[in-house]
Every structure is written in structure tokens, then in C-alpha cells.
Amino acid sequence: MRDGIRIARLFGIDVLVDWSWAFIVLLMTWNVSAVFAHWHPDWGTFGAFALGLTASLLFFLSVLLHELAHALVAISQNMGVRSIRLFLFGGVSNIEREPPSAMAELLMAAVGPAVSLGIGINLMILNWLLLPTIDPAAPFETISRLGPLQTVLLWLGPINVMVGVFNLIPGFPLDGGRILRAALWAAWGDLERATYWAASIGRGVGWGFVVLGIALFFGAHLPFFGGGPVSGLWLAFIGWFLATAAQRSYEAQRIQEALEGVTVSQLMRRDVPSVPPSTSASALVDQWFLRSGDHAYPVVDGDRFVGLVCPGDVRKIPPPEWPTTPVSSIMTPADRLATVAPNEDASSALRKLANLEVEQLPVVWNDALCGMLEHRNVARWLELRIGPPRGWRPSHAQ
Ligand SMILES: [Zn+2]
Fold it and tell me: pLDDT of 201-218, one tens digit each?
């Protein structure tokens, strides 16, 4: 699955983890264990590692709380939220609709960093109250006397503050960029122009990070960012990710606007050649697949849409059995297929195409096939409206 593995369902929202997330948990555990081992030489490698892992998992729990805050505000503002995904750079909420107003966007964006800063500052205050006075001449001596819980909290507080501050960088699609977009949107009353500027600043910030990262890689030393080739590569990588995400969010926004008010029936293909369920696989190959360039054919029994058949279904049986195998026994039945309704919003249908990574979706109304919503038709329509597509194309046929 492209979106990741589901680990929980909270408030009706799927919590997914990506493979890249496992990598970052390991990297972080390794890093934090090294710090803890340095603070507490007496704990041994295993002790430092166990505590490092606990600290990383608590860190990702705080990231999840940050995302959950975005998601719950989004739901309260009538923007549906399907899932929260944890991946290499933290978390992202899969919000189904654009915010209805600048105020809704401001609230939704601000609540995430507020949660991270809240957790971080509270932990730091707690530490300050609990911690023995640190002797400035020998700070490690004080730290080495701390128990496991306090050691973890000592690390967890500042890192949550860093997450909050990082997310406030005013480059779209970071939270700070969304806050900036909300402000520009409120000031200009023009969402597209606001998105354009917030995303342009996001790209600028991203490329700025890339340049700083390269400078660090080649030996420069900067306040706050530190130095060294590893930090440099990491910073450049984050910058590249931010710049790409800004560009992609801007394009997604333009597509969303172009599709505003358009329904599936306006974009679907109507003259779809269908296959009766009793057709043999060999007839399907000779008279359908070899006669046209379509990816898949709907199977229709009288008026009823019963399934979809594609080349992969034919490959499941050996060629000698083709003449005696009916299409109905190899097709994907209708109840296992995602479909769209003719009056559905084109933008939500396009999101289904992209999320399911399919080339087409049957358009079905009252069990009858009305047409097919095909990726290439939507792409052509968008090309006529806003120019050639980039980066949002699904990759597999259904
Ligand atoms: Zn956030």
C-alpha cells in the first residue's frame, strides 16, 4: 500500500505509518542512544539503547498529537480527514477539502505548532522544577545523576519546541506557510494569489536550506545548524523536500480550483465498449483487447454493471483454458471495485483516482454503468484549462 500501514484508528481517522518512518525511528534511536550513553556511561549500551528507543517513540507520539490537533480542527471546520500519515519528516494529515475560509485555515494551521510548543514548554518547566541545580562548571555531572524518566524528559522538551518552531517557518505547505497563506487570503480575498505567494516563499525557504546544507557539507559552521557533512546532507535533503512539497501543493491547489463546480458526468467517457459476462476469455482477447487500446473493460449484464476486466485478470489463467473460461469468473466483481457517481465532484473523483493509483473508475448510478472516468480524459481537460500536468499522475491500471 502506497500510503503505509495502519497502526490505529482515532476519532474515525486512520493512523498510517510509512516505511520511511521506521528508518527515521531507527536513526533517531541511534542518535539519542549515543547522547544518553554520553550522559550516562554507567547505563551500558543496552540501557542507553532501550531508553533511546523509548524517547524516539515518545517523540513520535508528540508528532501524532500535533497532527491529531490539525485533524480535529479540520473536522470541526467541515473538512473531512481520512488519515494521518507518519513518515520520514514527521506527520501529515490527509485533509479532503481546502479550508472554507481564511479563519478556518488559520485555526487549523496554528493548532499544530501550538500543541508542539505546549508540550515542549511544559516539559521544560517541569524539568526546571524537578531538576537539581546544574553546576555550570560541571553540567554533565548533574545530568549523569538523573534517573531514566528525567533524562528522557530533558531531551523531549526542547525537541518538541524545535518541532513547533520549525513548523512555524513561513513556507507553504509548512504550518507557518499555511498561516501566511491564511493572512494573505484574508488581506487580498484571493486564495490562488495567496497560495502562489505562500508556495513561492516555501520554495525559496526550501532552496535556501539546500544552499545552507551544501555550505555545511563543505565545512561551513553556522549558529543553530552546527556543521559537518551529515548535518549538511540532512539539511539539504529537508530543503529539497520542502521546495518540492511547495511546488506540488501549489499545483494541487490549481487543479482543485480548475475542477471547482465540475462533476464526474462532464468529464467521463460515455461511449465505453462493454463485455457481456458470458464472453469467453479468448473472445475477450481477440475482440476487445486486441481491437482497442483500452486498459480495462466494464462487464455489463443487461443493464447492470457487474465488474471490470483487465489484462492482469486474463494472465491469471493459462492460454489453453481461455476458450472455456467466461469473463465473469476472472473479472474483479463490482462489489470489490471503487466506483464514482455521475453527480460526484470531479475533484473528489480525481483524488480517488490518485489515492487508489488506478487509470480509470467506473461511473455507476443505480447499478447501471453511465461511463468511465479515465485518467487521460481528466488530464486532457486539465491541460486545456491550466497546462500540462506534473507530478500528480497515478502509476497503475485498475
Ligand atoms: Zn503541523
Answer: 989 999 998 998 898 888
Q: Ligand 1 mean position to 392 CA, how many Å? A: 22
CA distance 357 to 368: 24
Amino acid sitting at position 150: Q
pLDDT at 134: 64
Q: What is the pTM of this model?
A: 0.70
Q: Are 109 and 77 in contact (CB under 8 A)?
A: no
Is residue 114 scored above 90 in pLDDT? yes
DSSP letters, 368-394, are EEEEEEEHHHHHHHHHHHH-S--S---
Q: Are 394 and 359 in contact (CB under 8 A)?
A: yes
70 CA from centroid of ligand 1 (Å): 7
Using the mean position of ligand 1's atoms as its centre, give its distance from the Cα of residue 207 in Å: 20
Find cell 464514482 and name the residue: 340
pLDDT at residue 110 is higher than 50? yes
DSSP β-ladder status, 90-95 and 221-222: unpaired
Dump the DSSP string for 161-223: HHHHHHHTSS-TTSHHHHHHHHHHHHHHS-HHHHHHHHHHHHHHHHHHHHHHHHHHHTT-EET
H helical segments located in 189-322: 191-217, 229-258, 264-267, 281-283, 311-315
Neighbours of ion ligand 1 (CB under 5 A): 112, 167, 175
CB 272 within 8 A of CB 298: yes
Residue 85 CB coordination number (10 Å): 19
360/377 Cα distance (integer angstroms): 10
